[in-house]
Amino acid sequence: MFDFIKKKIKDSINSIQKKLSKEEESEIKSDIKKEAGILQEDKEELKKDLEYSDKKELKEEIKEVSKEVKELKKEEEELNPIEKKAQKKKKVFSHVITDDDVNTIFSEIKSALLENNVALSVLDKIHDDLSVKLVGESVSILNNKKSIEKAIKESIADVLTGYDSGEFISKVKSKKPFVILFVGVNGAGKTTTIAKLCKFLQDNKLKPVIAASDTFRAASIEQLEIHAKRLGVEVIKHTYGADPAAVAFDAIKHANSDNDDVVLIDTAGRSDINKNLIEELKKIKRVSKPDITIFVGDSLTGNDVVKQAEVFDKEVGIDLNILSKADVDKKGGAVLSISYVTKKPILFLGTGQDYKDLIPFNKEKTASFILSE
Ligand SMILES: Nc1nc2c(ncn2[C@@H]2O[C@H](COP(=O)(O)OP(=O)(O)OP(=O)(O)O)[C@@H](O)[C@H]2O)c(=O)[nH]1
Ligand SMILES: [Mg+2]
Fold first, then answer.
1. Which of 13, 80, 190, 360 could form a disulfide with 165 if both were Cys (CB 3.0 to 4.6 A apart)?
2. Are 12 and 105 spatial neighbours (Cβ–Cβ below 8 Å)?
3. What is the pTM of this model?
4. Residue to substitute in 272, 324, 355 for testing ligand 1 pocket (most ligand atoms within 8 angstroms of CB)
5. Which residues surround ligand 2, an ion (CB under 5 A)?
């Protein structure tokens, strides 16, 4: 994930580094010129003095000064690499970052983020954040990479919100049975994510049961039953075409009598979010009164998945996001946008087809990963 953004961020840091290095070069040059000028004046003075004083002594002095002038000229000619020269002069050149510098840094990142389908509001937020963090900051010209990288990392982390998986488990344990409703378009990864989450709950000593409330798509019940058998979890089902809300209701009743800890309600998707789907989900929600509603989105669909999440939130109401297929997503635009746009945190990233491929989301790690080598 983030391959393309990673490269662009590096390019942007290098280009600002280059800009500042050029600035430093001219600063050093003008310093040297100034010093050489002063020495030249000294030399002229001494020459004048020579006419009136002890010639031998003054000749020595002139020789000294001439030598220094020569050395400084040589230094100016050799003004590369910059680092060596600045060290030699034992002078730390610093630069106060301007709006213009931040625009230079941001312009490269912006194109990368746009190409990765990052939402516009997220772009604006990152730009504003970078300005607040960097403008007016005095950075070392030779060693500004670290401070700029740090600011970019923090600005990216600022647009991300995660929901701690430990906190999630505590919440689930706070009520019995804890009911979780899953929503999302078809093929988003709901059913697979439910199977992975069963494993995660089992690993945390919780007993889940699944409601097969997708009575719409052919083979959806069998798909769930295959996972459930492997995981040793019960599936509460009706027939295809049955009322999905009634299935959810039965699953909760079953959990109460069977002492199950969590009810996971699988629902149907549609290729687009149509009225039927929304009405169906609203009814399931009314009947099952879930403690948490999770939106499952396919991260490969970039900005579309963010728009879907907004619609589901507006129509049905969502509490958390899980993004699937992060393992095959080279861009990462959905991951960067979804929590900022929907204001709902990311709980997990799906990173493959195995049950273990459900990674708790961590915003600092994600931001660091974007800037890692
Ligand atoms: N590589 C990868 N594939 C995934 C991941 N999550 C789900 N898939 C695959 O995506 C496809 C669709 O997943 P489902 O879980 O059936 O999606 P759904 O949302 O239940 O789809 P409908 O039931 O049609 O609404 C399946 O082939 C899954 O194996 C993931 O994290 N990584
Ligand atoms: Mg499904």
1. 360
2. yes
3. 0.83
4. 324
5. 190-191
Our answer on whether the CB atom of 215 is closer than 6 Å to any ligand 1 atom is: no
Question: Is any atom of ligand 1 closer than 6 Å to the C-beta of 350?
Answer: yes
To test the pocket of ligand 1, the residue of 272, 353, 356, 361 to mutate (highest count of ligand atoms within 8 Å of its CB) is: 353
User: Has residue 50 got a pLDDT over 60?
Assistant: yes
Alpha carbon of residue 63 to chain centroid: 62
Provide CATH code, domain 3-159: 1.20.120.140
Rounded distance between C-alpha atoms, residue 337 and residue 333, angstroms: 6
- Residue 168: count other Cβ atoms within 10 Å of its Cβ: 21
Give me ligand 2 centre to Cα 314, in Å. 22
Average pLDDT over residues 295-309: 94
Distance 298 CA to ligand 1 centre (A): 8
270 lines ligand 1 (CB under 6 A): no
- Over residues 326-349, the pLDDT tens digits come to 999 888 889 999 999 999 999 999
Residue-range domain boundaries for the chain: 3-159, 165-362
Number of the ligand 1 atom closest to the C-alpha atom of 185? 25
Average per-residue pLDDT in the chain?
88
What are the tens digits of pLDDT across the range 275-292? 999 999 999 999 999 999
Diameter over CA atoms, the chain: 118
pLDDT band at 90 (very low <50, low <70, confident <90, very high): very low
The pLDDT of 163-172, averaged and rounded, is 98
Strands 262-267 and 178-183 come out as parallel
Whether 164 and 363 have beta carbons less than 8 Å apart is answered as: no
Per-residue pLDDT at 81: 55
For the 165-362 domain, the top CATH level (class) is: alpha beta
Buried b (16+ CB within 10 A) or exposed e, 15-28: ebbebbbeebbeeb
Q: Which amino acid is at 48?
A: K
- What 3-state class would DSSP assign to 268? coil
Which helix (H) or strand (E) segment is 150 a member of? helix 145-159
Cα(213)–Cα(48) distance, integer angstroms: 102
State the closest ligand 1 atom to the C-alpha of 270, by its place in the atom list counted from 1: 25
Please report which confidence band the pLDDT of residue 268 belongs to, taking 50, 70 and 90 as the band edges.
very high
CA neighbor of 156 nearest in space, from 370, 371, 367, 369: 367
User: Which stretch of DSSP H or E encloses residue 298?
Assistant: strand 292-298
